[in-house]
Amino acid sequence: IPSLISGADLVPITPITPPLTRTSNSANNNAVNGINPRFKDEAFNDVLIFKNRPAVSDFLTILGPSGAALTVWALAQGNWIWGYTLIDSKGFGDARVWQLLLYPNDFAMIKNAKTNTCLNAYGNGIVHYPCDASNHAQMWKLIPMSNTAVQIKNLGNGKCIQAPITNLYGDFHKVFK
């Protein structure tokens, strides 16, 4: 049975702190015209993606079609997000509970209830970092589907969250994009 760990020894010791951000002066940054552009030269961007302050959702659990719940498996920021069944992750408590920070045009940041960190696209997976409203890797597009499910697509890399289950009894602990 999986268990929640601190994970401090699994990531760099240097704490990851979000930058001080500023609001854009762009007239295009609003609910109608969309988001601030991402810098193309990899320079640090301290401009918020949206001018708008987010609305905050109630607490929720994010489940994939296979029944895998997005779960922080190690508390230290920078660790991977995994998919566990609800029964396997019972001992994780609020590590599998999230809040949506809702922005215009169906964009959201996804904040964990236990760590107060946000989902961050990273390589071929997802990690949790301090919430940073200027980070495109932490902004997710919520795309409603015809079956009432929601596809979750990252603004930074264009990939969607999925938790593929090929071995019903052995794969519940993986989350890939």
What does this 3D model show about the protein?
It is a single chain. Strands 1-4-5-8-9 form a 5-stranded antiparallel beta sheet, with no helix packed on it. A two-stranded antiparallel sheet has the order 2-3. The chain has a two-stranded antiparallel sheet with strand order 6-7. The chain is an all-beta fold. The protein is built from no helices and 9 strands. The relative contact order is 0.20. The chain has one domain: Trefoil (Acidic Fibroblast Growth Factor, subunit A). It is globular, with a radius of gyration of 16 Å. It has strands at 55-56, 69-72, 81-84, 98-103, 107-112, 117-122, 125-130, 140-144, 150-154.
Can you tag this structure with a few keywords?
177 residues; mainly beta; 5-stranded antiparallel sheet; 0% helix
Structural class: mainly beta
N- to C-terminal separation?
24 Å
Mean pLDDT, to the nearest integer, reads 79
What topology, given as strand order, has the largest sheet?
Answer: 1-4-5-8-9
Largest sheet properties: 5 strands, antiparallel
**Computed Rg:** 16 Å
The proportion of strand residues reads 15-25%
> How many helices does DSSP assign?
0
Which geometry do the CA atoms define? globular
CATH architecture: Trefoil
Say how many strands there are.
Answer: 9
Order of helices and strands: EEEEEEEEE
What is the CATH third-level topology name? Trefoil (Acidic Fibroblast Growth Factor, subunit A)
CATH class: Mainly Beta
Percentage of residues in helical conformation: under 10%
Q: List low-confidence stretches.
A: none
